[in-house]
Amino acid sequence: MSAPLLVGERVSRHFGGLRAVDNVDFTLHDGQILGLIGPNGAGKTTLFSVAAGSLRPTSGRVLLAGTPVSGRSAARSVHLGICRTHQIVRPFARLTVLDNVLVGLHYGRPPGPRSGLLRGGLLRRDHRRRDPRDAAMEILDFIGLADRATRLPGELTLAGRKRLEVARALATGPRVLLLDEVVAGLNPVEASRFVDLIRQIRDRGTAIIMIEHVMHAVMSLSDHIIVLDHGRKIAEGTPELVAADPLVIEAYLGRSDA
Ligand SMILES: Nc1ncnc2c1ncn2[C@@H]1O[C@H](COP(=O)(O)OP(=O)(O)OP(=O)(O)O)[C@@H](O)[C@H]1O
């Protein structure tokens, strides 16, 4: 297998006495989807924030293609090629859908041959030499929002706002996309379309880590799953292996003798 793309080495993040993330290792390879699951309060979002550069680890580090990325800033991580979405979507409410994507293009990773979008063929030409609006429209077309380009985010459905959140992140040209509960809250038809979309993003060259409470989505998409509970990694492996692990079942359902 190729050299790992993103590696977490003994990552811990404490809040006072609370070990929100406790000594967690993880590895993401190019072309992979890594699922991050666990009960409420397990530490998933905290680990995401450390990986995205917005939260400094108490100890340990995160490396992107061998370069340490943790503990600096989210803006630096975006420039290096890690971008996250948020569980509560955060578009610029007064900008159109198109302008929201343009912001991502403007502040994102400088385009180059290793950019996920470029490698995957979504932005076929170097968008520095193109009208950025064409590049933004190409992303909106891919994400399924081209016909909403001139609308405001508030006019979109929840599924539309979640697509916009992903479009904004994709516009930054990430090598690693961190998806925080993008399927949760969608109806079954929308959820199944979103699963297809996530698979297409991966197939076009962007590796993904996803936090997801919708089990069928994370189980069908992930190549590898990590399970957190009380900040610690309690299991990892293929979806089948993890789903059958007694520790995982206990973490979700409580002890059978309780
Ligand atoms: N900024 C903070 N200050 C203090 N405690 C925090 C902070 N952020 C998270 N925590 C605590 O850290 C623990 C892990 O929280 P985190 O949000 O990472 O869990 P999670 O697995 O993402 O949960 P959920 O599935 O409910 O979103 C929780 O006990 C939470 O209350």
TrEMBL record:
Organism: Winogradskya humida
Keyword entries, A-Z: ATP-binding, Nucleotide-binding, Transport
Name this protein carries in UniProt: ABC transporter ATP-binding protein
InterPro entries xref list: AAA+_ATPase, ABC_AA/LPS_Transport, ABC_transporter-like_ATP-bd, BCA_ABC_TP_C, P-loop_NTPase
Pfam families: ABC_tran, BCA_ABC_TP_C
PROSITE patterns in the record: ABC_TRANSPORTER_2 (PS50893)
Record-linked SMART domains: AAA
Sample GO molecular function, one term: ATP binding
ABC transporter domain mapped to chain residues: 6-255
UniProt superkingdom: Bacteria
